[in-house]
Design a protein that fits this description.
Layout (H helix, E strand, L loop, with lengths): L37 H15 L3 H15 L2 H13 L3 H14 L4 H13 L3 H13 L18 H17 L4 H13 L3 H14 L4 H13 L8 H9 L4 H11 L4 H14 L4 H13 L3 H14 L3 H14 L3 H9 L7 H14 L3 H14 L4 H14 L3 H14 L4 H13 L3 H14 L4 H14 L3 H14 L4 H13 L3 H14 L3 H13 L3 H14 L4 H10 L7
Helix pairs in contact: 1-2, 2-3, 3-4, 4-5, 5-6, 7-8, 8-9, 9-10, 10-12, 12-13, 13-14, 14-15, 15-16, 16-17, 17-18, 18-20, 19-20, 20-21, 20-22, 21-22, 22-23, 24-25, 24-26, 25-26, 26-27, 26-28, 27-28, 28-29, 28-30
Length: 564
């Protein structure tokens, strides 16, 4: 077998604070705890004078080189602070690790390491520094560890949970530990236990905003709607100017109540009318609600502010298309840069131009783009080929593919597209030649193995060869419905009907596409279950009326065709 936006949600866990580090103070001198070797003194003086002259890069280079040589806490501290000021996280982490090693009681070093490592998702590395802070009486942002949970194995997650449980016994009033545990339980799929853990937070602080928002999100995931937002609403009544809380509330509402989400985003926008995130969020919600006239001014405001312009042009282009203002749509799509949704926009330009009969203008435009953006040549050729093919200009698409492959002979994607065009023309020899060239370069290309195997199974008697290819594709992509469908089809062609049904049923459950339905229905029909076969086919025709393969299969087998 061959296959309304909403505002993006932000993580509920509060990120590690990115405090602006204070500028290095040139007057503070490094006072060694022991005499420096003579050969290091010059480099240290160069670093100090570079710092005085605000040549921070040179100063940092010298300090980071000297710190491991001298193993002096003052030098390591200076290197850490300077690297943090310059936002060179890796240098700051390396220097702070040495600083903490030389002076394990230095809480500033542990704090920096805890925050920086957590921010980078290095959960297991950050945890010891948070523990050091806690045991010294300081505050650690344990919930920031959630950034790296996904990278941990299940065993590491369980070990982390055991550690947090132990710390909870040591620090029974630490709400950050409780929130961290709740986040970890959620990650482990134990959402009800995570909600229960948050109740312990509210016993200590019923206004803990991070816990309030997280509880609502978790209950939302569990489908618990009674009193879902009560704590958030109470908190906002007490502090209506808390923009961060209202923003998180608004984002949660996009999953359950778009009208109320619009009310909250509009409230925020009235207080920050030039906020690009709010303008886009309100516009997307209005579009989702079908209020195009209300969405458009917010998108146009983004253009006036010259911010998030790619997204503004994208949605204004879609609005223009809906109103059949195709020239306006083209203008908007042509203003989208490669930093935005360039591929989609160019595809729409191609579709609109071809529909208007502007074939030559389109070719000239795409040629200009390939010259302007040489690194995007392959993508632009692919868009042109696909647009021509989808409008039944198979011959022109094939000519374009030939030109593209002369320019980019090693492009497997373009070669695969050409092979599919050959297949559409019935030129199976040319199709196979292209596919085998791809497999010479990439023997484990599951897409090509599946496509060639399926074609051989469907159009030839080379069934053993087809089965071998599809088997390899299935080993590479065991859960891919298209490959499972192909395996079912080749088993059917081999006469192994029971095995075929097993594969095709699984493919249909995973992806009830009409092509899968055609195959599954045929095997059901020939195995004697004609009633279920009809049910499968008719369901497919409800989704895609007139689907050619489904109708062709039904007529070939003599099945009554009800839905045309």
């Amino acid at each position: 077998m061959q296959t309304a936006s909403e505002p993006a949600a932000e993580p509920i866990a509060a990120p590690v604070a990115d405090e602006e580090p204070a500028a290095p103070v040139a007057e503070v001198r490094v006072t060694p705890q022991r005499p420096f070797p003579d050969d290091s003194l010059y480099s240290l003086l160069v670093a100090e004078f570079a710092l005085r002259r605000r040549k921070y890069e040179q100063a940092l280079q010298n300090y980071t080189e000297l710190a491991p040589q001298l193993r002096d806490t003052a030098v390591s501290a200076r290197a850490t602070r300077l690297a943090q000021y310059m936002r060179d996280d890796q240098s700051a982490i390396t220097a702070a690790q040495l600083w903490a090693e030389l002076d394990p009681d230095q809480m500033e070093a542990h704090l920096m390491l805890a925050n920086m490592l957590a921010r980078r998702g290095q959960t297991l590395e950050a945890l010891p520094h948070m523990i050091a802070l806690t045991r010294a009486g300081g505050a650690a942002n344990y919930s920031a560890l959630a950034t790296g949970f996904e990278q941990l194995s299940n065993g590491q997650k369980q070990k982390l949970l055991d550690t947090i449980n132990q710390l909870r016994l040591e620090q029974p009033q630490d709400t950050q530990l409780m929130i961290c545990k709740a986040l970890l339980l959620e990650n482990l799929g134990q959402t009800p236990a995570a909600v229960d853990e948050l109740q312990a937070v509210f016993v200590i602080d019923d206004q803990q905003l991070q816990a309030i928002v997280l509880e609502a999100k978790l209950k939302q995931d569990l489908g618990q709607h009674d009193g879902l937002y009560d704590r958030i609403i109470t908190a906002l009544e007490a502090n209506p100017d808390n923009s961060l809380l209202r923003m998180q509330y608004a984002r949660l509402l996009t999953r359950t109540d778009l009208s109320e989400a619009r009310t909250q985003f509009t409230y925020l926008l009235e207080r920050a009318p030039d906020d690009s995130n709010l303008l886009l969020s309100v516009a997307l919600i209005e579009m989702e609600l079908g209020n195009i006239a209300e969405a458009k001014p917010h998108l146009e405001a983004l253009l006036r502010l010259d911010t998030r312009t790619d997204e503004a042009h994208l949605y204004l282009g879609r609005i223009a298309e809906q109103h059949q203002r195709f020239d306006d749509a083209l203008l908007h799509y042509k203003n989208i840069t490669p930093a935005g949704d360039f591929g989609f926009a160019t595809g729409r330009i191609a579709a609109l131009a071809l529909a208007a009969g502007k074939d030559q203008e389109l070719r000239f435009y795409l040629a200009q783009l390939r010259q302007q953006y040489p690194r995007l040549r392959e993508q632009l050729y692919a868009i042109e080929i696909d647009s021509l093919s989808s409008t039944n200009r198979t011959g022109e698409a094939l000519q374009t593919a030939n030109v593209a492959l002369l320019e980019l002979p090693d492009s497997s994607d373009l070669q695969y597209m050409r092979s599919m065009l050959y297949e559409a023309q019935g030129n199976l020899n040319a199709m196979e030649r292209d596919m085998r060239l791809i497999l010479e370069r990439d023997p484990d290309n599951a897409t090509v193995l599946n496509a060639l195997g399926y074609t051989l199974a469907d159009r030839t008697d080379r069934l053993a060869e087809a089965e071998m290819m599809i088997t390899r594709a299935l080993q590479l992509q065991p859960d891919e419905p298209a490959v499972i469908d192909s395996m079912g089809w080749v088993k059917y062609r081999l006469g192994e009907v029971e095995e075929a049904l097993t594969y095709l049923q699984r493919a249909y459950v995973l992806f009830p596409d009409p092509e899968v339905a055609a195959h599954y229905g045929e095997v059901l029909w020939v195995s004697g279950d004609q009633e279920q076969a009809l049910e499968i086919w008719r369901a497919a025709l409800l989704v895609k009326p007139g689907h050619s393969l489904v109708l062709k299969t039904m007529r070939r087998l003599g099945a009554p065709v009800v839905a045309e």
